[in-house]
Design brief:
The complex is a heterodimer of chains A (674) and B (502).
Chain A (H helix, E strand, L loop, with lengths): L2 H22 L5 H27 L4 E11 L2 E9 L1 H24 L6 H20 L3 H19 L6 H32 L4 H7 L7 E5 L2 E4 H16 L8 H4 L5 H10 L4 H8 L1 H4 L3 H24 L3 H21 L3 H28 L17 H15 L5 H15 L5 H27 L36 H27 L16 H13 L2 H8 L3 H19 L2 H9 L1 H8 L4 H48 L7 H22 L1
Antiparallel strand pairs in A: 1-2, 3-4
Helix pairs in contact in A: 1-2, 1-4, 2-3, 2-4, 3-4, 3-10, 3-15, 3-19, 4-5, 5-6, 6-8, 8-11, 8-13, 10-15, 11-15, 13-14, 13-18, 14-15, 14-17, 14-18, 15-16, 15-17, 15-19, 16-18, 16-19, 17-19, 17-20, 18-22, 23-24
Chain B lengths: L2 H7 L1 H19 L5 H17 L3 H4 L9 E9 L4 E7 L3 H18 L8 H20 L3 H10 L1 H11 L4 H30 L4 H6 L4 H18 L8 H8 L2 H26 L1 H6 L1 H20 L4 H20 L4 H32 L10 H4 L1 H14 L6 H16 L1 H8 L1 H17 L6 H4 L6 H19 L2 H19 L9
Antiparallel strand pairs in B: 1-2
Helix pairs in contact in B: 2-3, 2-6, 3-5, 3-6, 5-6, 5-13, 5-17, 6-7, 6-8, 6-13, 8-9, 9-11, 9-12, 11-13, 12-16, 13-16, 13-17, 15-16, 15-22, 16-17, 16-20, 16-22, 17-19, 17-20, 17-24, 17-25, 19-22, 19-24, 20-21, 20-24
Classes of the chains: A mainly alpha (674), B mainly alpha (502).
Chain lengths: 674, 502
């Protein structure tokens, strides 16, 4: 088979599996749902590895599969761009997806929507692959919205829960706000470059660097700044950057496997991928990069804070995801695209791991998600415990773990960046290191160490999801049990890359030739990455050297301090955090309210749109148009006809007279026009 | 001459008269005493009428931007009125859509209509022929006759098989339409006076001063804007939809609205190109009001049919917006939007029909958790709601995408306002889905619902295939329109103002 054929199969196999299981799943044996989809995604993974190997040996391809649409001289195609960036994403997406498929066999085993779930996640894999493999903006937008659709379907998977169907609508609409900007950005790109194909656009872009556009009279902006910020608004929606982040915490209403796959490892990183893909455009606007960096920095720090006060195990991990996405975005802003992608990859592994481990804990706890009811699970769930520890250590950036290499590189790159906002961003992500370590290990200690708190609780605490039938919680006399191999195996297989992938990949990805010709950095204007490379080769020399050096740096101290503090607060002196919470109740309140974003959106946007619609309908349509104009006309006609009736006198000479006047008027009219 | 040749020579005449003939046959032979015979007869007629339109696809010459399949006969020589038919790349796909939708409507009525079956079926078959007549007439008076005649079956459909408030709805419909149509007739008489003919082609060549063009444009505008409908002459549509039976709503949304859009391209714009340019700002403003204002109104509707009716108006805003951007992308996007909206709105109204047949309510508040009892139906409903909110991969995306891209080029803020449909369209569609389909079973009526029967499944599957098919591969539609759209824009670029000094 040729590589183009293989690439096509990679996309089609998950789609076909999803279609078969989705359309006929209810009539097929239950097990066929997972066998079919795992076969599809598994094959896609193996084939992706083949493509990846080929790209390592220099294979790149950019070709169209078919012409979707032509209009005038504009052609919209469906096609693939296969290069190192694409191939790497393909491997990550299919691998994590495969792990999640396997895991789902255990996690969803009792769910009545078993086959539906497999169909959705396979469909998601297809959509995500279309997104990363696209060679043009139109198909990118297709994948972009298609992953959003599947996300919508999966967040609302348990459609009986009011919270779930609120969350999925919210997720879709907030994403649509992002897509609104994204589409306008695409419109600008098409307008000025005349094409939506990446290759043509990137080729034309440098010539447009100095073009100014005037959107508001007398104010002109650089075209590239406007276009890039619009495109980035799309990324803000998909990758949950402030203020479009509000949907992601709520998306935890979906089953845990999809939180791992969609809302941590793959879909939410689509925005990061997109900006990295568009590096030839973003490099042309330092202003846009500053915007990107500042948004990322705000997200990285302030979403981290929220992780501290969450008690739902999934929500802690969700806020950690938001914060890490902020890190990636900051890296993009620093023109360290390869570092952002590198962090995207390491994060995909360890965050998928953390989510799946959280799911394992949730299963062990009989669907109780409150970490205050857990404790000492290391005794009962050793595999989950060890793999969670690996994931947490990777997340906080412990040297030699995957997360260390990527996160430390981001911090260094931002330190070396000189664009507006880099000072603030540096501070934010540095502080973020401490916050991350603190909330991660708060979670870790509360769940795996300490007292077995479920034995004391009477389970009178609020059951948020009372409507859900498998939401029981663990009885005080029960022991939690680790789920079977379908759950443990993915944890172990994800723990391995969480340990070693950074060590292996940092040299080629960041400082080697891996992304040459794919990611474009204008070193003269944005020299951070060049300095970083120089620094690495001069001082650190090797991944091991970097790790050893890492033990002596400020980020490591901050992380270590965070871990220690978490241990002290939650293992030794649990009275202290409680006291702090009381003392600073205002801050606590602000955090509890998530800075008020949700309340504001609910009142201002959702409520505003509804009341505006109501007014337009009641006043505009019903009162003015119908009341005054239409029915008014009818009344008027009624009244006039009452009068006009008298004209029908039955006398011929009346009619003849009227006719003559009529003819006269018409003649005048025509003569006048001519 | 063999049978096949007659049909291929008179494709358009067969397309018009076959369904009318079928309708008459159904009317004569069918009755409520033998309901199944009547239904099968109507279906056979509908299918035959659909098949005779196939040559419009198979024999269409994509390279030709002018009129094809032309037929010409003297009709009223005294006034130089001809039976002149012909289609271009805009009319042909709309005719195919019409004959296709008629089959769908016949099947959709199968068990639903139990009284006056023959009359109901015949009304739709005859209406189909008359609408195809509107799309293919190249003579102004012939067009006018079809245009007015097609309203009669629609009045009957709403008036006889409609809901409780049907009298108000039909009178409103009538008032609006009549007002517009009469002004159009005045315009035709004026043009006849100028050229001595009712040939549309003659009108295209007629030089006219700007003020005359503006008057003519406005006269046509009144007729077509009501039909599309454009804000602020849109309020008849929600009422008509609410009262119409499901089939009536389907034809109204899928085809009748398109007659207005099509007629802008056939008459108002090419006859008065300078006026069209002159008034383009006005037209774009009205289109944007439709897109934004109407979407917000749709958001707060409590009646499903009203919601979809408002959503139709909002989507038709893209059609008129695309027309008046004067770019190939915008124009073709508008045409794609017309075709796509034909499928999606038909499907949406059929979905409401499926629910209405079971619960006899259109109120959103009466539903909730329908997915629990009708999972298959819910999948279709979510698909069509997504298509309605312009999800890529469905046909609903294509036209809006093209028009928005063209609008950004025309003026960023026009594109900006048009693109708000991404948010509002999703908001009203999916919020309705949430309230009707998701959640726990709301009441005992919902608990008793039965999922789709085979007939309903069949219709919705066909429409779903269309919606996804044209979403994944819309090229076949624009292949029709390329040459015509290019020729149209060329024509529009040339001023018809009389040259000074001649």
């Amino acid at each position: 088979m040729t590589l183009p054929q293989i690439s096509l199969l990679i996309v089609l196999l998950p789609l076909i599996a999803a279609a078969i299981v989705g359309l006929w799943g209810r009539h097929l044996p239950r097990a066929s749902a997972h066998w079919l989809t795992i076969a599809g995604v598994g094959a896609a993974f193996v084939l992706s590895v083949i493509v990846f190997k080929a790209t390592l040996n220099g294979y790149t391809a950019n070709y169209n599969l078919y012409t979707w649409l032509t209009s005038g001289d504009i052609q919209f195609n469906v096609g693939f761009l296969i290069d190192n960036l694409t191939a790497m994403m393909m491997v990550v997406v299919t691998f994590v997806s495969l792990m999640v498929h396997v895991y789902t066999i255990g996690y969803m085993s009792e769910d009545p929507g078993y086959s539906r779930f497999f169909s959705y996640i396979s469909l998601f894999t297809f959509a995500m692959l279309m997104l990363v493999m696209s060679n043009n903006f139109m198909q990118l937008f297709f994948g972009w919205e298609a992953v959003g659709l599947v996300s919508y379907l999966l967040i609302g998977f348990w459609y009986k829960r009011p919270t779930a169907i609120y969350a999925n609508l919210k997720a879709f609409l907030v994403n649509r706000v992002g897509d609104f900007g994204f589409l306008l950005g695409i419109g600008m790109v098409l307008y000025y470059t005349g094409s939506l194909d990446y290759a043509t656009v990137f080729q034309t872009a440098p010539a447009l660097a100095d073009v100014q556009v005037t959107l508001i009279p007398n104010v002109s902006w650089s075209l590239m700044t406007v276009a890039c910020i619009l495109l980035f608004i799309g990324a803000m929606g998909k990758s949950a950057q402030v203020p479009l982040h509000v949907w992601l915490p709520d998306s935890m209403e979906g089953p845990t496997p999809i939180s791992a796959l969609i809302h941590a490892a793959t879909m939410v990183t689509a925005g990061i991928f997109m900006v990295a893909r568009m590096s030839p455009l973003f490099e042309l606007s330092t202003t846009a990069l500053s915007f990107v960096m500042i948004i990322g920095a705000i997200t990285a720090l302030f979403m981290g804070f929220l992780g501290i006060i969450q008690n739902d195990i999934k929500r802690v991990v969700a806020y950690s995801t938001l914060s890490q996405l902020g890190y990636m975005t900051v890296a993009l802003g620093a023109s360290a695209y390869s570092v952002a992608i590198f962090h995207l990859m390491t994060h995909a592994f360890f965050k998928a791991l953390l989510f799946l481990a959280a799911g394992s804990v949730i299963m062990g706890m009989h669907h109780d998600q409150d970490i205050r009811n857990m404790g000492n699970l290391k005794k009962y769930m050793p595999v989950t415990w060890i793999t969670s520890l690996v994931g947490s250590l990777a997340l906080i950036g412990t040297p030699f773990f995957a997360g260390f290499y990527s996160k430390d590189s981001i911090i260094e790159a931002v330190a070396l960046s000189n664009i507006t906002g880099s000072g603030f961003a540096y501070f934010a992500i540095l502080a973020g290191v401490f916050v991350t370590a603190f909330y991660s290990f708060r979670l870790y200690f509360l769940v795996f160490h300490g007292k077995e708190k479920w034995r004391k609780t009477s389970h009178s605490h609020d059951h948020v999801h009372a409507a859900d039938e498998h939401h029981h919680g663990l009885s005080p006399q029960d022991d939690p049990h680790e789920p079977g191999w379908v759950v443990k195996l993915p944890l172990i297989l994800l723990a391995i890359p969480s340990l070693i992938i950074g060590y292996i990949a940092i040299e080629p990805m960041l400082f080697g030739e891996f992304f040459s010709g794919v990611i474009f950095v204008n070193d003269e204007v944005h020299p951070a990455m060049a300095h970083l490379t120089h620094h690495y080769h001069e001082i650190l020399h090797s991944p091991a050297g970097m790790a050893l050096h890492g033990f002596m740096t400020l980020p490591f101290m901050l992380a270590a301090f965070g871990v220690l503090l978490a241990w002290f607060f939650y293992m030794k002196r649990p009275d202290i955090p409680a006291a702090i919470q009381k003392k600073f109740s205002l801050i606590n309140q602000i955090l509890e309210n998530k800075y008020g974003f949700d309340a504001f959106n609910e009142r201002f946007f959702a409520g505003g749109a509804r009341s505006l619609g109501e007014k337009l309908w009641k006043i505009g349509d019903i009162q003015l148009i119908d009341g005054a104009m239409v029915n008014g006309t009818a009344r008027l006609i009624g009244r006039i006809s009452g009068k006009v009736r008298h004209l029908q006198s039955g006398l011929i000479y009346h009619y003849a007279f009227a006719m003559i006047i009529g003819v006269f008027l018409f003649l005048t009219f025509f003569i006048k026009i001519n | 001459m063999s049978q096949a040749n007659i049909f291929s020579q008179y494709v358009l005449s067969s397309s018009i008269w076959m369904p009318i003939l079928a309708g008459v046959v159904v009317l004569l032979l069918g009755s409520d005493n033998k309901p199944n015979f009547t239904r099968w007869l109507a279906l056979a007629g509908g299918l035959l009428a659909f098949v005779v339109t196939f040559p419009l696809y198979t024999q269409f010459n994509y390279a030709d931007g002018g009129f094809q399949f032309q037929e010409m006969a003297r009709w009223i020589p005294a006034f130089n009125v001809n039976y002149h038919l012909g289609v271009d790349g805009i009319a042909a796909p709309l005719i195919l859509l019409t004959s296709f939708t008629t089959v769908i409507v016949v099947i959709a009525a199968w068990e639903v209509i139990t009284k006056n079956i023959a009359q109901y079926m015949a009304a739709f078959l005859i209406m189909s022929g008359l609408m195809i007549g509107v799309f293919s007439a190249l003579d102004g008076l012939l067009y006018y006759v079809f245009w007015e005649a097609m309203l009669i079956p629609m009045f009957l459909v709403i008036g006889i098989w409609g809901g409780e408030n049907r009298v108000y709805a039909t009178i409103k419909f009538f008032l609006y339409t009549l007002l517009g149509s009469l002004l159009m007739l005045v315009a035709f008489i004026y043009l006849y006076h100028q050229t001595g003919s009712f040939e549309i082609a003659d009108y295209y060549q007629l030089p006219l001063p700007l003020n005359a063009q503006i008057l003519i444009f406005m006269a046509f505008f009144m007729a077509f804007a009501v039909k599309i409908p454009m804000w602020p002459v849109h309020t008849w549509l929600p009422d008509a939809h609410v009262e119409a039976p499901t089939g009536g709503s389907v034809i109204l949304a899928a085809i009748m609205l398109k007659l207005g859009g099509y007629s802008f391209l056939r008459f108002a714009m090419p006859i008065a190109p300078d006026a069209a340019h002159y008034l383009s700002g006005f037209m774009i403003t009205l289109s944007l009001i439709a897109i934004v204002y109407i979407a917000l109104v749709a958001l707060v509707q409590k009646d499903m049919k009203k919601l979809i009716a408002y959503s139709s108006i909002s989507h038709m805003g893209f059609v008129t917006l695309g027309f008046f951007l004067f770019s190939q992308l915008g124009l073709e996007g508008a045409i794609v939007q017309m075709i796509s909206h034909g499928f999606i709105s038909a499907a949406m109204f059929l979905c409401v029909g499926v629910l209405y047949d079971r619960m006899h309510s259109r109120q959103i508040a009466d539903y909730g958790g329908v997915v629990n009892t009708m999972p298959v139906f819910a999948s279709f409903a979510v698909l069509f709601a997504m298509a309605n909110s312009g999800l890529p991969g469905t046909s609903g995306f294509v036209g809006e995408f093209m028009v928005i891209l063209a609008a950004v080029k025309y003026n960023f803020w026009v594109g900006f306002l048009a693109a708000t449909t991404l948010i509002f369209g999703a908001a009203y569609s999916l919020w309705m889905v949430k309230r009707v389909f998701y959640g726990d079973i709301a009441n005992k009526h919902v608990a008793e619902l039965k999922d789709l029967n085979k007939r309903e499944l069949f219709i919705l599957t066909i429409l779903a295939l269309m919606v996804i098919g044209f979403g994944v591969y819309p090229q076949p539609i624009t292949e029709f329109t390329h040459a015509t759209a290019a020729q149209f824009l060329n024509h529009m670029a040339i001023s018809k103002l009389p040259v000074a000094g001649l």
